[in-house]
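HOLO CASE FILE
Compound: adenosine-5'-diphosphate
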Amino acid sequence: MSRSDPAGKTWDQIAAILRRTVPRQQFETWFRGMRVVSLTHEVARLTVPNNFLREWILKKYRGLLRGALREVLGADPEIDLAIAEEGDPSPPAQPAAPPTPRAEVPSAIESDIVLNAQYTFENFVPGPSNNFAHAAALAVADSPGKSYNPLFLHGSVGLGKTHLLQAICHRMTQRRPDMRILYLSCETFTNHFVTAVANGELDGFRFRYRHVDVLLIDDIHFLANRERTQEEFFHTFNTLYNANKQIILSSDSTPAEIPTIEERLVSRFKWGIVARIDPPVYETRVAIVARKVEVHGLPFPDDVVQFLAENVCSNIREMEGAVNKIAGMARIYHRPVDMEIAREAIRDLGAPGTARISVDGIIRTVADHYGVKVNDIQGKRRTKSIVFPRQICMFLARRLTSHSLEEIGGYFGGRDHTTVMYAFDKIRAQSQKDPELSKTLERLSSEVTS
Ligand code: ADP
Ligand code: MG
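Model generated. Tokens follow.
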């Protein structure tokens, strides 16, 4: 029933209408390079030389184009505007499209998400917990479709999945401007699909998703319980995969752990590389905090950096939040960043890492390590064999909890805050000179926090 018209005359008529409707310069800029692949009452398949033209036309001239098509065809076909592939037949012969104004040319990335300029590989701190994911992401960014396909990143919230996905986008738009990249949240993919189904625009939907070089979908676990979208994604996946196009996915769990996801998708997700991101270890946390501090241009003393690294452990977004909060408070107070501010900030944030560690737990652990009684540590005795572990307890309590000096003193028979401060300074100074003690402190800390 569809009347196929291979370019030629019909297109000339459409072009004539466009010429009539827009100023000559605009026609030359936007429509000169347009080619017809096929015209039916249902779909007008057109191409333009690049994504910039495509985006612009769809944004600014869709209505106009539709009007012209309607006028000539007497129908209202869906507009399927693609980017011409090299070697496409290009009737009618026309001079190449004029160069588009440089400043306006967007990168080849298409996304509903505004890329965060900070989420680059340069700003990503690698460590044992994320090395593998980091290396795989780099490899994929440098040779898409060739190294690992798909790349499946998973890890719990706030550990850098989105950061790595966007780092790939940044790197590819810089180094491979020829690549067509589509980066979306899973929700957007789902919404597009649902809308396309409702409006009978599945062809356009499919065309869009299956003609990219790189498809990145963040938080793919939201496909759970979405049977039809899963089905559609399955086909998108196959088409891209078979064409050696790169697919990159992130999720909060392993493929198999995503509830109600089809088995055939699970198995495909495992075809390439599945890389897990774990919570960062202490050294990585210190490095990350130090990196996040840089953007504020405010010096953070080492003890504050360490305090944050010790207290906010399982979510990097929260670490970042704490840094921001501290910097903000220092500005408001017109004071340099110090431990008081850091403690207050952490307390307000109710960081989960801090609540778990109790002073009682610290005292039990330390007492056990030194073979002394809990009662003695909390009591009045001043023999050396008791005083030293007591001071260690105070040091750790200050390091690992968000209690104030006064509060800590309360756990040790109501000792004065200056006593706690003295103990802290003394143990810190001593541990800086004595690697053995420093190691012991490290071991005790990790025992207390585990
Ligand atoms: P997810 O998507 O896994 O929930 P995000 O990628 O949004 O987590 O990361 C949360 C925050 O932590 C972001 O601001 C990100 O920049 C930061 N972040 C995560 N991992 C790192 C890292 N290794 N180095 C630097 N910043 C990181
Ligand atoms: Mg994310």
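CASE NOTES: The CA atoms of residues 108 and 180 lie 5 Å apart. Confidence is low (pLDDT under 50) at residues 1-6, 89-107.
CLOSED: yes
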